[in-house]
Automatic annotation (TrEMBL):
Family: Belongs to the class-I pyridoxal-phosphate-dependent aminotransferase family.
Identification of the protein by name: Aminotransferase
Matches recorded under InterPro entries: Aminotransferase_I/II_large, Class-I_PLP-dep_aminotransf, PyrdxlP-dep_Trfase, PyrdxlP-dep_Trfase_major, PyrdxlP-dep_Trfase_small
Species in which this protein is naturally found: Pseudodonghicola xiamenensis
Domain Aminotransferase class I/classII large: 68-395
Taxon lineage: Bacteria, Pseudomonadati, Pseudomonadota, Alphaproteobacteria, Rhodobacterales
Listed SUPFAM superfamilies: PLP-dependent transferases (SSF53383)
Length: 402
């Protein structure tokens, strides 16, 4: 007997991505990688963390740092988050904040909380592939979220009913989305709130890249716009997911959720059942580093990524052949490329690794229906400027030779 035969039906929706195999080749020497959407490790505030961990392990604090703690999260960190949220128009209280093990965990919990098999999740086409992976376990249907008002509320509701469920949430990143790098303007954010009202569903606002704006005007988060409409977070349907991964460190796995209290209370129960709480010492260290130098640190990394973004856009303009299009992100880590229709991103990656030693992520994985094979995602955050130019030059050469 094979145990695979008795896995729950949800296991069938959890597939290893084909591109993982290709991306294993990244360890080869000489590869220029635009694949990982990751911070540059050279920029981590390692000295500040060394001190913060040493402080957490002093005799007065070690019992707190190494002990079990509450599921809601380390209170001083939640208090710091409340202050940060106030700065971007989100008035909330510590009881509206739950610390999670990265924002990825929040996505899993939200899938678990809202989706019965057959329910509908509205997502971008493309969207963050980790969100699809998290939600897939709860066996939803996906429908294409259109934030520009080209679809009626009824069309979403009816499609969901035909599939035997209801629309439970719209998931999106409003700022510098993964994979496109694009930002929703204010009108689109307001429209999304109207849509969520009409469909009576939640909005999951994934703010993983929000602090990384390089130019243009900041636009209030969707949750801030909803609080402005309704006067109080307790009346809001938007659930905001934040993360320290792109600013301080992804390895410590510290993220947070801000939402109305009934949502947070239920998520606390999910967290108790899943992992009791996020690492106490990591939360203490993140809190100390955030209190001491968050703004200075983020300003520094923004400056570096800003230059890298400019260098990548310039190199694309110089080296890409006719028929290739790309986005011009105001922040974040990604540029999204649309290739001529007949070029498949996964084939291009295989060739590129072989002949030009340049890596990127084929775009198909970001579409819930695995469509749009002629797209790729490039990340500029972790490569030095000279290598960005060299890598784009090589990619241009490969595309010209097709
Ligand atoms: N959301 C988006 C849009 C992301 O790109 C990522 C990381 N790639 C995450 C969430 C998860 O980040 P973390 O769990 O490290 O906070």
């Amino acid at each position: 007997m094979s145990l695979q035969q008795i896995f729950a039906t949800r296991a069938a929706r959890m597939k290893a991505s084909e591109i993982r195999e290709l991306l294993k080749l990244l360890d080869q020497p000489g590869i220029i990688s635009f694949a990982g959407g990751i911070p540059d490790a050279a920029l981590f505030p390692a000295d500040a963390f060394a001190e913060a961990f040493a402080d957490a392990l002093t005799p007065e604090r070690q019992a707190l740092a190494l002990q079990y703690s509450v599921s809601e999260g380390y209170l001083p960190l939640r208090q710091w988050i409340v202050g940060e949220m106030a700065r971007i128009g989100i008035a909330c209280d510590v009881d509206n904040v739950l610390i999670t093990s990265g924002s990825q965990q929040a996505l899993d919990y939200l899938g678990k909380l809202f989706l019965s098999p057959g329910d509908t999740a509205l997502v971008g086409w493309p969207t963050y592939l980790g969100a699809l992976a998290a939600f897939n376990a709860y066996e939803p249907h996906y429908d294409q979220l259109n934030v520009n008002g080209n679809r009626t509320v009824e069309s979403y509701v009816e499609a969901a009913e035909k599939n035997g469920g209801t629309v439970k949430f719209a998931y999106l990143s409003a700022d510098f989305a993964n994979p496109t790098g694009e930002t929703l303007d204010r009108a689109a954010r307001e429209h999304l709130l109207d849509l969520a009202e009409g469909a009576d569903c939640a909005v999951i606002e994934d703010a993983a890249y929000q602090s990384l704006r390089y130019d243009g005007e900041a636009i209030p988060p969707i949750l801030a716009l909803e609080i402005a409409r309704k006067g109080n977070i307790e009346n809001c349907r938007t659930i905001y997911c934040g993360s320290f991964s792109k600013t301080l460190s992804p390895g410590l796995r510290v993220g947070w959720v801000v939402a109305a209290q009934p949502v947070i209370s239920q998520m606390v129960l999910l967290k108790q059942a899943a992992d009791l709480h996020s690492s106490t010492i990591n939360q203490m260290a993140v809190c100390e580093v955030a209190e001491r130098c968050f703004d200075d640190h983020v300003a520094r990394i923004r400056e570096v990524y800003h230059r890298r973004r400019d260098v990548m856009l310039e190199a694309l303009a110089t080296y890409m052949p006719e028929g290739v299009e790309w986005t011009r992100p105001e922040g974040g880590m990604f540029v999204w490329i649309t290739l001529p229709e007949e070029v498949d991103g996964a084939d291009l990656l295989a060739r590129s690794l072989e002949t030009e030693k340049v890596a990127f992520v084929p775009g198909r994985a970001f579409f819930a229906d695995a469509s749009n094979g002629n797209t790729i995602r490039l990340s500029f955050s972790a490569m030095k400027e000279e290598l960005i130019v060299e890598g784009i030059q090589r990619l241009g050469r490969l595309l010209r030779g097709l």
